[in-house]
Amino acid sequence: MSELKNDRFLRALMRQPVDRTPIWMMRQAGRYLPEYRASRSQAGDFMSLCKNADLACEVTIQPLDRFPLDAAILFSDILTIPDALGLGLYFETGEGPRFKKTIRTEQDVANLGIVNTETDLDYVLKAVSTIRHELNGRVPLIGFSGSPWTLATYMVEGGSSKDFRHAKAMLYGQPDVMHELLHKLALSVTDYLNKQILAGAQAVQIFDTWGGALAHNAYLEFSLKYMKQIVDGLIRDHDGRRVPVILFTKGAGQWLEAMADTGADALGLDWTTDIADARRRIGDKVALQGNMDPSVLYASPANIRAEVKRILDGYGQGTGHIFNLGHGIHQFADPAHAKAFVEAVVELSPEYHR
């Protein structure tokens, strides 16, 4: 593998000195970019784009050609594991992901296997190795997966949900069944992320999109417990380098201390958490990633710049901060405003590292 020319992102994750705050954006390869829309049109549909290694590589690199970003993230979807388990993932226009089969009963869970990434998700591994080769050491490549709880919500509900009626009914009514489902998913996610690391991912992120929908104790028992199981099972050194792990739970400000105790190297913050408060609470233990509200990108470049400065001031001096949005960039964001955002971080952050 080629020598890494820009390791600012990996260094900040390990809380080592950097010259400026590194930046990447969740969902940085996406519908807000016209070149992405052209590639997706060429592929025919979203999953065909994910399964074509050359096109997945193309869209992964598109934002790097526009913006001075410090990391690339594998172009894929968080629902590849349930799809590989035979649930039949498809996408309804304007309605998001759907599954042809749901997991609702004890027997459904008993029948569920564990993903063998090399055979069931070989297209993801091919995309990782293709992207890593094409990057040629330009920036690090991030691999990722959905968390067990987040995957379970989609599998039990059959798609996205506002109230998680079926998933929470299983959690409270048949907790043993939900635990068995989450345990199986944790084994699948561990294998999936480890194979991504072996294929070339230099850091990994676990996306727990729906952990914040849980009650306090339920989050600890049904979400965080299984993310810790994954962290414990991950390859942490590969290719002569540490492989950092980022945990991101949307809406998790009240659980930061417990999340920092999992052994992860960094925590992603959404925009509802004050980064200064987060650093006071756990910043000597883990790096922090975030956390500008993606909707700020609808504002003027001057207002975007002011918000970047406010967040940099909140984190303060020193390393251990990776600038990011508090969730994925919106499809209606203006690429010129995304550029203003990234350039503001590049221009304003060096003074926080002197």
Number of domains: 1
Cross-sheet strand order for the largest sheet:
1-4-5-8-9-10-11
Give the overall silhouette: globular
How does the major sheet shape up?
7 strands, parallel
Name of the CATH architecture: Alpha-Beta Barrel
Mean pLDDT comes to 96
N to C succession of SSEs:
HHHHEHEEHHHEHHHEHEEEHEHEHEH
Structural class: alpha/beta
**Name of the CATH class:** Alpha Beta
Task: Output the keywords.
354 residues, alpha/beta, TIM Barrel, two-stranded antiparallel ribbon, 11 strands
Write a structural description.
The protein is α/β, with parallel strands linked by helices and 354 residues long. The chain has one domain: TIM Barrel. It is 49% helix and 13% strand. The protein contains 16 helices and 11 strands. The protein has helices at 8-13, 34-43, 46-51, 53-66, 80-87, 106-111, 117-120, 122-135, 148-157, 165-173, 175-199, 216-233, 256-260, 275-282, 301-315, 335-348, and strands at residues 72-73, 89-92, 96-99, 141-146, 203-208, 237-238, 241-242, 245-249, 266-268, 287-292, 321-325. The strands form 3 sheets. Strands 1-4-5-8-9-10-11 form a 7-stranded parallel beta sheet. The mean pLDDT is 96.
